[in-house]
């Protein structure tokens, strides 16, 4: 049985290695509503990370999330694996 502890530090390290890559963030926006935002991981900071959003889909340029959002499963992130 292999358990990998997920901590804020491991989440930040994972995102540090993905800066500049395409990302999709799925966030809970209410009881039965979710929002999906596509963009590019712009920068990581000690407590938050910033995503430059796709301007075709969103009315604002950037959004930031905290690493705790991932830890508590308020958001999920997915990186585009099809880039060559």
From TrEMBL:
Gene3D superfamilies: 2.30.30.100. InterPro entries: Protein_Veg. One of its GO terms (biological process) is regulation of DNA-templated transcription. This is Veg protein. The lineage of its organism: Bacteria, Bacillati, Bacillota, Bacilli, Lactobacillales.
